[in-house]
Fold this protein.
Amino acid sequence: EIVVTQSPGTLSLSPGERATLSCRASQSVSSSYLVWYQQKPGQAPRLLIYGTSSRATGIPDRFSGSGSGTDFTLTISRLEPEDFAVYYCQQYGSSPLTFGGGTKVEIK
Amino acid sequence: EVQLVESGGVVVQPGGSLRLSCAASGFTFDDYTMYWVRQAPGKGLEWVSLISWDGGSTYYADSVKGRFTISRDNSKNSLYLQMNSLRTEDTALYYCAKVYSSSWEYFDYWGQGTLVTVSS
């Protein structure tokens, strides 16, 4: 099973700042099959990025994903008030799929 | 519009049983693998179980193997999770989730979840 580790656990930033979230896998993720979800309090996760770098429908272009192999990054270019949330990565290149533990982006 | 609506979550004693349901609409249900994913209070996401489009293949996380049973009724567009021998560590919000495709198993739609609390 691929273990996925996200860092940092919490990121304290101000609106307008750039956020860089890291996701590291214990083994290479096949075909860059990695996604990112956003979860706000009291809501289900929402798909943001699939296939490492493709934005899901309706996701603004301030969200971008990159990476390969074992190291992946979600970047939010300029934080909007609605972007403060918890972000999870998930690999689907190997069975079973596995989630990272999440990164909370909070208002500084 | 795709909708997934879970139900059945309640407070149950350790050792008890519970059946969760998920009603699906807005897509061709029997084309897709479906999952149950849970989230303990204040914690991250954990896949619990999956079932293939026809119900012919099922898989379970080690933490629930032998205690939980996933099933589906394609004629009713419904997904189920039978939970037996419940433990306090099973306390969580249980989500029903649809995969994007059988080749790309990430979740494009989630329900709002149903809360299972295991407590004496």
